[in-house]
Amino acid sequence: MPVRARDLAPPLLTRAAKRAQSRFRESRARGPLRSADRLHLGCGPRILSGWANLDRDGGPGSTHVDLTRPLPVASGTIKYIYSEHFIEHISRAQARKLLAECHRALGAGGVIRLSTPDLAFMVECYQAGSIDEWSEMDWVADTPCQLINEGLRKWGHTYVYDEAELTAALDSVGFRDVHRVEWRESDHEALVGLESRPSHHDLILEGTKGDGGRLG
């Protein structure tokens, strides 16, 4: 049976409507974000006081922003950007664009802090046959093979990084002094104590835009 044009119209209109709705929400986000100087990306239900909390599907207190699109903030206006367990949920190409947007949004001396699962640690657990590292979070695989596969593919994970890969991604868009930091620790007071998940050897990196010294 031939497909008629009117049979295709509803899905096409639905997709167009979704795109228009997303653009409308992002345009509305620009207003509340005009005074923001700290961005919490991929916040989910967690709202940080004093931060602009951005998420596509966040809860009350968050600002609706699709983080695979340009950030709705002016260039050079942000001091700090923080994200916990988000970057692994988008593709490598999307992450590269997001990091470039973060670099654009930050002013000189601005700092980004990213927390994400560490591929190298997962591999260590796999090789050691350790399957109960995350038992307190109700994740215990039956075998090391299941552990590594679930760690890479479960919970919407798309691309899981090791330190070298994430450092290179930050370097490639212009960040400098990219280095690993400890859970909930930082030389920047604004970035101390931010992680909400239990410490399981997460990969946590900070990087700085250009020169400008330490921000207050």
Structure at a glance:
With 216 residues, the chain is of the alpha/beta class. It is built from five helices and seven strands; from the N terminus they run αββββαβαααββ.
List the helices and strands and how they pair.
Layout: H1 5-33, E1 38-41, E2 52-55, E3 63-64, E4 78-84, H2 92-105, E5 106-116, H3 119-128, H4 144-153, H5 163-172, E6 175-180, E7 203-209
Parallel strand pairs: 1-2, 1-4, 2-3, 4-5
Antiparallel strand pairs: 5-7, 6-7
Helix pairs in contact: 3-4
List keywords for this structure.
216 residues; 7-stranded mixed β-sheet; alpha/beta; 5 helices; 19% strand; disordered C terminus; Rossmann fold
Secondary-structure-derived class = alpha/beta
CATH topology: Rossmann fold
Low-confidence stretches: 212-216
Mean of pLDDT: 89
Q: Count the E strands.
A: 7
How is this structure best described in words?
The chain has 216 residues and is of the alpha/beta class. The protein has one domain (5-117, 157-209): Vaccinia Virus protein VP39 (Rossmann fold), CATH 3.40.50.150. The protein contains 5 helices and 7 strands, in the order H-E-E-E-E-H-E-H-H-H-E-E. It has helices spanning 5-33, 92-105, 119-128, 144-153, 163-172, and strands spanning 38-41, 52-55, 63-64, 78-84, 106-116, 175-180, 203-209. Helix 3 runs antiparallel to helix 4. The termini are far apart.
